[in-house]
Amino acid sequence: MKRLFATTFVAICCSLFTWAATLPVIPAPVSVTEGEGYFTFDSDTKIAVENVQQLEVAQLFASHFGKAAGFIPATSIGNNGNIMFTTDASLPAEGYKLDVTPSAINIKAADTPGFFYALQTLRQLLPAAFDGCELQQDAKWQVPVMQIEDSPRFGYRSLMVDVARNFLPKSELLKLIDIAAMLKINKLHLHLVDDTGWRIEIKRYPKLMQVGAWRMHRDEVFPARPNQRPGEVPNEGGYYTQDDIRDIVAFAAERQIEVIPEIEMPAHTSSSLAAYPELACPSVDAPITVLPGGGGINTQYIYCAGNDSVFTFLENVLDEVMQLFPSQYIHLGGDEAVKTYWGRCPLCKARMETENLDNLEDLQGYFMQRMSDYVRSKGKIPMGWDELTNHKLPDDIIIYGWRGFGEAATKAADQGHKFIMTPARVLYFIRYQGPQWFEPYTYFGNITLKDVYEYEPIQPKWKPEYANLLMGIQASMWTEFCRSAADVHHQLFPRLLAAAEVAWCQQGNKDWQDFLIRTDAQLPRLQTMGINYARSMYNIDHKLTPNVKGKTTVEMSCIRPDVEIRYTTDGTQPSSTSKLYNKPFDVKKTTVVKATTFQGGEQVGEVLTLNVNFNKATGRKATSDVANDYVLTNGLRGSDRHSDFEWAGWYAKDGSFVIDLGKRTSIKRIVLGCINNSSMGVHIPAEIAISVSNDNKSFKQVAAKSYTHDEVFRTRTAIEDTEFDNLATSGRYVKVEFTNPGKCPKGDFKEGQDTWVYFDEIIVE
Ligand code: ACM
Ligand code: ZN
Question: Can you give the pTM of this predicted structure?
């Protein structure tokens, strides 16, 4: 935010940092000039606008005062107002100028969204109670005297909500739309279809609602949920009626949000195939059910590309969808289509012959082209995920870059296609947002609030023309691990605030510390709106690294620079007077480190407990063929989340590592920390051999163990240590060699897939 003159200074109670903050508005406006005094809203306030569209925008804003303040400012078309809207066609699309004096507010914009956004800026400057339902007699309904000039960086500022994995009641979706609009997000991408549920009423195909919208409830986390068994009656789900959809679209339109429906094809469709199994390839010879969770190989049941009824079905579905959604865009999915059954299907093979297609990827290209053509024939623009770059791209399709850092989308840009970035590595809010020990169980690595905030979609290595084809960014809220709206809130907030700022603010106009102050100011508003936001930004990350002296170095950090980290090493709870952490320190004997964060003397984070355990291997270098070898001897055990950074993993291969104990050492016992997470294809090794050496050249095997197939492929998530007792040996070097258990067996969650082997620690006694 450019500060043109005096700014409000907010002193943060903190011994480390004090900084100046500008207006607590997210996303930060392009420029703000603050003056003296306030404009106060009261029962005499009158908003005068030029036309009906502006009137709707003004009335929506004015209506908030009803419940919270007990008065509603008058709104009318004309000149009778102390708040005036004036069209200024010279301003950028969606931009606005806001001039607040003690007696009047003048708003200029080129279009209706511009006026709406000016009011969202005012909304954020009013007390949090403005967004509540209770009368606040003593609130000050005032905004500071100021001038703002503002406009967005990107025209496409999107939130995706996956209502297929976790069905959100309409009221909850409307709440998210309202908050997204407050953050100047202008697209809602609704992921309406997946293996786990069909969420939109299609009148022509009633079984989509009767069958496709319902699955078996399972208590397990998503990847571990068993598929529906014969005789079970699905008992969890729901869908939006066509009236619900009209309400959602209208509610969003009032808030300048375009709702983009996604109808997945040809994969992620078990829900519709459970309802109409004749649309799958005839090569599928098992019952198709709506999947409660990961689904294993059942996710490989997809629409048959050789059956013309599939295209008729999808065209009829899209006809109803296009009637309901005025959006210019229709998202056709296209991701993660495993084509096992296409390869075995006579109809698909016949299609490949008649259409002269070389391979199954090109068959998907045919499928997507045919459906994209249908969408285009109705005057709409098709969209799809970046797998569509694996084959010839359908004409005019817009691509969402999602895999990794979303770079595949630039392959589409090379062919002149527009694209949107929603990289899984930065904008998939399914991922952990802080140290995993304190987070609800979910997938993969961490994406902190800071990671989102610092995201820059335009990469230095990009060709210049990509920037013109990049429409914007999307925060994607996948809900596999959510069971309630509160769970969705936790994953979405406050990260959505950071994504909104990335989408709106010009490059170089972001400031992490300033953003935190503005976030702090807006969190009470989210609370007033019933949002269960995460406090992960206050938690401590740690890194324990063995050092050459056989000690282990403890590093701790927090993404908030305005907190103090205080810690103890005697097992007691840390307090505001405990030792202040200001640099890494060494631990050389078994120690319990407890640490947490404080702001202004108040504890704000969770207590991190590091049980650093010393044995003969602790702090000794472990050399292996995977990169993160130090983790095996840092003295710290991992949790049952093998992605918590305390585990070293080997995929689809045998492995080994060697520990240098520093000198010839007697060895009685060795424990290897392993983990089994069957739903993620993580298993203990089939065989482990231990050998010792004094010269790191000639090794003598001193112990070995092998596990049966059933022991390796147990269905559970648990830490499973392997212990070698009564060794009575000695040596300077200890080598561990192990055999990968091979592919997951028939009936397993990951049937036919390669396995991971993970170790967190080697303990030598
Ligand atoms: C996706 O995450 N499969 C688009
Ligand atoms: Zn087929």
Answer: 0.95
